[in-house]
Amino acid sequence: MICGRDTAVDMFRCYICTESFTLCSKLRFHLQRHRDNCELSIPIMCRQQKCKSSFQTLFNFMRHIHAYHNHESQHESHADLDAVNPALNLPVTVGETDPCDLDEDVDGFDTTDDESADFFDNIKSEAISLVAGLRANSSMPHSTVPEIVQSFNRMASSLTSFVQVQMSSTLTAAGVATDIVEKVSRELDTKVAPCHQPLDFLSSRYRIDKFFADHPLAVLPEAITFGPRLESHRGKSSYVYDNFQYVSVEKTLSSLLQSKSYVEALLQHKCEPGVISHFTDSTQFSEHRLFSDHSKFSLMLQLFYDGLGVTNPLRGQSSLHNVGVFYYRVKNLPPQFNSCFGNVHLLALCYTHDLSVYGYEPILDKFVSEMKRLSTTGFEGHFPILGRFTVHASICHVTADNLALNGLMGFIESFSGSYFCTICYATSDEIQVKFREEDFTKRTLREHRKDLAGLATASRARRNNCRGVKRDCALNEIDGFHVTNNWSLDIMHILFEGVIPVELGCVLYGLCDVDKCLTLDDVNRNLSVFWGQISVENTHKPTEITKIQEPGHALVPSMKAVQYLALLKYLPLAVGKHVPAKSKHWKFLLHLCHLADLLLAPRFTEEMVVYLKNVIFDHLSFFRDLYSDSAIKLRPKHHLLVHLPTIILKSGPLTGMSCMPYELKNSFFKRCAHVVCNFTNICYTLAYRHQQYALYSQLSNNHIRTAVTVGKHSYETVYSLPYCSCLLDRFGLQEADEVAICYKLCVASVEYKQGHCLLLQFSTETGEPVFGKIVSFVSLAGDDRWHFVLEKVQTVDFVCHFHAHEVVFVTPANYYLYALQDVADFHPLHCHSLSTGYMKKYLIRLPYHLF
Description:
This protein is of the alpha+beta class. The chain folds into 5 domains: 12-91 and 99-174, no CATH class; 215-230 and 238-309 and 320-377 and 388-410 and 659-706, no CATH class; 417-472, no CATH class; 491-602 and 609-641, no CATH class; 708-844, SH3 type barrels (Roll), CATH 2.30.30. The chain contains 27 helices and 23 strands. The protein starts with 11 loop residues before the first strand and ends in a 7-residue tail after the last strand.
């Protein structure tokens, strides 16, 4: 059975406004106008008759329409369709046209002026979408876009001429009088003249740049001067002005707030009493003068800085074109939106060499001046939902990797000595014996001023810092912010790329060389077999370990942060059955897993934070006692762990300060630089291209991902499904009714498949997690919502040796229906089967601590 359009009325329907069209081309033009008005949500829903397919691009959607819902493309199947639906059996009259009738119709040509104008507006809208998508693609050189447009113009002109010639010859062959043919040809020439060059308004690089620069949602970078320098070229000396590219925060926020879906997302978060799940639940939010003022609508900005190499690091002078990137995110958005690539906004781009010459102050001064204005007077505009409103904004905290954070805020950038911490005055000797935050003297505003005053004395003593402070930071001028109150540390660099690689190296050395219960080949072989069975996180597979070094060294080769985390998460399941429970190194590994689960938790209570302090103290003590014989010293990143519980209370969950979304954004600039291969002013090129992507992201609503993407699906009768009774009870259906069934769907970037498990809830009696195994996904006819059909899984206990929950499958199977928003956690889970002797265990590993 072919799922077609609404055959009763022979119409195509728009899923946004439900308007109907007789031609699929009209539907495409209509959807394109929705897109231009930022009303086209992604994914695009089909909704023709009972079809529930969804697509990420308009091109794929229209291809689906032509393939499955366009009766013209299915002409050869009309006989079969007529047998299924007699309403399609319409009378068709085929005959010759009378010349007199044609003569009478010449004066009233087949389209009115208004219809022609609409037609060309649709072509223009289609062209704008095409060019905007090409310019947003980081793999597409902008110089090739005009060539594509001109090629399209040439093809359109040739096709138009061909149609004109064929029409004249056809009329002549039909016996139409010559004067009538000439009259029709002249009239047609006038009507189709614009079709010879339909994209002429975008035919050159200048016209394209000007068109998108004038777009009301476009925010272009502006060049700000660092300062002049004298440069000699061919015997002539002249002043050259170094500059950086800056993108206005006010213009960016004003452009974002024009989207209704974006404003709705900003207003989504609701505080849960006693639970810390967002920055708005933290003490810094409640103590901030602007953010805590509920009479004002204020946006909280998280600033980020990182250095970026855009050329091949193996070639000579690879650092010549290195750039410094400043990003920010709007912390008002829920975490599921803030992880999106499009919600990381560009603030500034500059050469790292210029930063070493002029410092951070010129860039920060520009940002500070904006923050002062936005935090006091704000900016006014008319926004969806809000209406005429004044919006305020200010910085909530700064995040970066440890080196960049210290440099940006004026602290020393060396971690081999003392006073490296931005929160306390820790020394290299103290961090080896003190594992509680209370044992260290914290930095305060008063002490920081003393350190700044002591820089003159330190300079005379040939030291560049006073207790770790090198200079003042321009960000301190922003009301409500000071570097000593910047309670933010990056969990990605501290844990994923710092603590975990070193401690996993120690654990594997202890298991392989000390306990001798494993070999390196055993570890690699078991990991390879495990990843051959796993159905989640396939892209995070760790690389093969080539060498196990003595304690104190990281794993070889180095991996990405997500690979280290995946290795830690699944190593107990992969090799646990070969390791004796009494091994101290194995116990230390399990303790590291427990610590990582707590640090990555998305929600906290104050009691959890107190417990986390004790876990960190125990872990650092355990590490020191277990590996003290190898003369291993705790690294500075080990010390930073002691501040994380307080950071949670001050600024919210640690995942909200992770650099991972920002680091992923860097790939856009690296790919652009490799494609354009023009380094005359690479900062301007990258900034301009990024803003083109930002414009396209807003026009296509890619930065707000809420809808479900569904691929192949079918309709089944309720009585034929094993979970028939569940559907009847939940929805009140009849056994003869049909429902849509699929076995894979995507929500944002998360993919769910048949066989995955989900955490549904926690038992009110035992407190144990309740899991369910995905059987399929079901949706009712006429309803876009999809529900998980889950097979009940009974939790037996938490098995400490594998750091996972043991489960059993209930026989006969019990089924449940859940909506995505009703599950306790959205991550799909893998149920690992483990053979121990003559028994088989089923184990599920949670991604982090949940309650």
